[in-house]
Amino acid sequence: MDTPHPPIDSRKARIDAHIDNMFGEVKDRLDRALDCLTRREAGACEALIRADVALNEEHRRIESDCLEAIACQQPVAHDLRDVIAYMRIAEELERIGDYASDIGATILGMDDTDLGHLGLPEVRIMADLCQRMLSQVRQAHAEGDTDLVLRTSALDDELDARMLGVKQGLLEAMRADAANVRNGSCMLWIAHNLERCGDRATNIAEQVVFRVRGQIVELN
Length: 220
Prior knowledge:
- The mean pLDDT is 93.
- The chain has helices at residues 8-39, 42-50, 52-73, 77-108, 120-143, 146-176, 181-213.
- By secondary structure, the chain is an all-alpha fold.
- It is built from 7 helices and no strands.
- It has a single domain (8-213), classed as Methane Monooxygenase Hydroxylase, Chain G, domain 1 (Up-down Bundle), CATH 1.20.58.
- The protein starts with 7 loop residues before the first helix and ends in a 7-residue tail after the last helix.
């Protein structure tokens, strides 16, 4: 006798719990990436890189649950939108986790020279903006709050502006002194990864609008 499939609401609740767990894991990865940048300890960076495997597995678990829900229960209307949005949100979170791991790998290539003149204060602000965006889209997703999504988009504009400032400052520092090129290049790549984290958080915000209102919007 075939095992009955769980009701769609029950399945969605399970997927949603995994999504929320993934939000928490990604927040942890970004926190650890900033800590790695501050301390520049090889062991912490390597542990951050290894931790990406668990996040990838969580992404695959969510994707599998969503595909099974579509195949077995053929959801329609808002249920189908929810399931599609879950898959897309999980994919965006997995990519943010990849950026955190990339930051750890980049830090391994740096020397121990002080980074204060190479944009470290600004990069810390960028990391904080990423965390604020992630927190807001997590709340917006949980509460179905599309107004909060618009505030997240505004933070992405600020993050982009910070990125331009960091890029300009780093290029000037590297042109002024060749000794800055190694760490300056790494800091530029770290800032780029943080800027991309913001883009991914904005993509999640778009999925919240799609899930709640059934509208496709472009917030970037």
